[in-house]
Amino acid sequence: MTHLGEETIMKRVPSVFEIGKNFANVDITKEPIPVIPTIHYMMGGIPTNIHGQVTVPDLGAGTDEEGLYAEGKIVKGLYAIGECACVSVHGANRLGTNSLLDLVVFGRAAGKHIVDGYHQNDHNYKPLSPQVLDATMGRLNKLQQSTEGYNAQDVADEIRALMQKHASVFRTQALMDEGVDKLLALGEKVDNILLADKSQVFNTARIEAFEVANLYEVAKATMLSAANRHECRGAHTVLDYDRPEDDNVAPNGRNDHDWMKHTIWYSDGNKIIYKPVRKVPLTVDYIEPKVRVY
Ligand SMILES: Cc1cc2nc3c(=O)[nH]c(=O)nc-3n(C[C@H](O)[C@H](O)[C@H](O)COP(=O)(O)OP(=O)(O)OC[C@H]3O[C@@H](n4cnc5c(N)ncnc54)[C@H](O)[C@@H]3O)c2cc1C
Predict the structure, then answer these.
(1) What sign for the dihedral angle of Cα 154, 160, 166, 170?
(2) How confident is the model at residue 92 (pLDDT cuts 50, 70, 90)?
């Protein structure tokens, strides 16, 4: 922006000057604005059916001949919608209407399903185990009793920097593999956060400390799933797998034959399995995916 000169900047784009000052602490009349890639849309999420009901694969039922697990069981009473959910309509692309579809279509569908279930007196839920709070209270107490450990924001910054380097816009297999090792090694720090401020009222430091563990789970899901996917697909651009647009097997590196499938990552043991992409629409004909050309 510096080439515009201070007078033009202050007259034409004063809000950009303010944003530069408030968010990046730079004077845009004199200095460049730092640019850091960030997340526009988190692709993937908690698996759901079209009613927003969360589903889990039935591991005991085994896989089909392609090694994929079927949709599985509904977790009755648990719904996910919006960016945190994966209804299996987007693949790996964040097109213009991702959120519109997620929120307006599936949000509405989930709401209707919840209300319909309520009116049908369908309240037969699995009883909660008496130990249901143990894990949550365990997390809370561990932080509350911590006398030494790592600063939450330092650990969060390490996770962010690692993800920006190893799971960024343009990836290589080596960079992702290295990222997996480094991320798993960070687990020790995430498990040993020091909560210096133990106050009980409106303690945002405690929330931030909790958030580090959540950030770490999402980072692991992203990094491990990415390193395991040996192709290019949408935002997952891996330079090693790039191919010409007219490649017979994997045009532009997208290998539908081997990789048209959803990754499911388990926090427990960092296990990865795959399930099929829902391809057949309910009321209209199926449209074969095409090669993306510009
Ligand atoms: C810069 C940018 C541009 C975008 N542009 C587009 C676009 O052009 N088109 C498009 O379709 N999408 C776009 N998106 C994506 C879109 O904005 C999001 O996908 C959508 O807003 C997600 O909605 P949501 O309700 O699922 O989640 P959110 O809007 O993130 O809502 C989640 C809510 O939960 C609250 N919350 C979090 N934790 C807790 C807790 N523990 N307890 C209680 N509440 C909690 C949060 O405060 C928040 O209010 C853009 C995103 C960004 C960041």
Answers:
(1) negative
(2) low
